[in-house]
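Input.
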Amino acid sequence: MIENIQMVDLVSQYQKLKDEIDEAIFSVVSSAKFIKGPQVQSFEKNLASYLNVNYSIGCANGTDALQIALMALGLETGDEVIVPAFTYVATAEVIGLLGLKPIMVDVDPKTFNVTADVIDEAITDKTKAIVPVHLFGQSCDMEPIMKLADANNLFVIEDNAQAIGSIYKFSDGSTTKTGTIGHIGCTSFFPSKNLGCFGDGGALFTNDDELESKVRMIANHGQEKKYHHSVIGVNSRLDTIQAAVLDIKLKNLNSFSEARNLVAENYDKAFDNIDSIEIPYREPKSTHVFHQYTIKVKGGQRDQLQSYLRERSIPSMVYYPIPLYKQKAFNEYYDSMPFQNTEELCESVLSFPIHTEMKLSTQDYIIENVINFFS
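Output.
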């Protein structure tokens, strides 16, 4: 038995980058510029360059990023915002928090992502925005979503918390990184993310000059000039220490993605011939950065498999066990029939350990036990 298997091994990743990270942290501590230090501006600039977007604006966390994005768009109480029903709560939570109405829609059963055709059916005269979530590490099919948004004069806010570094390919052959296609992109730097800091952190991206100014103002108590508050804002900053850590990790993000893809390919080869497992589908128009390696377990065996693995010290996670519309917090926003795809995914998905420092022996042990369960 291999002990201490982790869904994400942040300790080993730190050890690999220890000297650089320690030096970066010490530099901040010795300068005592903990808030809005030069490392924040450096990271924002480098992240914008990596994403090939005009602006990157750091904030306190990914949930704040989503909230600030909605605030910057000037939406009004009661406006409808379309979100997938199969996602983490933060995507819809901030919509309700601002007095807007989250309109939940079903997702594609293969990619787990929302699609333009389903969004189209949900658009009303109250719809003002769409929040596509690039779930588990690959892009939604954004070209038709953007065409639909343009045709209906809707804003698009990309939730890119799980897919930073993923590349989307348009029909003309051009490519763009996720988070930079819509009007505003948002991400989280929660430690377990592909680009994670040592606490909480987040960022927003945009190519729009006016939106960049609004985002920065809202995130800074609504002030453009100190003690001059133009709008009601929030206090949401990316700490200097976190920016320093992220700047080091950003240089390694592509290699992180490559390492995750190697793990995913090994899983694929091992599980592709197991009838009771459906391996992750790859969206042809997107690269995959595998924030999660998520299979579908057929025949109602998901929970039994998870228990079997747990008994052998193998962690796994269900992302997500309950549709958003079945959460008590969202009762007032949903009174329709359940979404078939979302319901089936909540009952069948299972995510296996995947990270940048995963040893082949550890993965072999996981694979062996999964195969044994179905033998």
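The radius of gyration is 21 Å.
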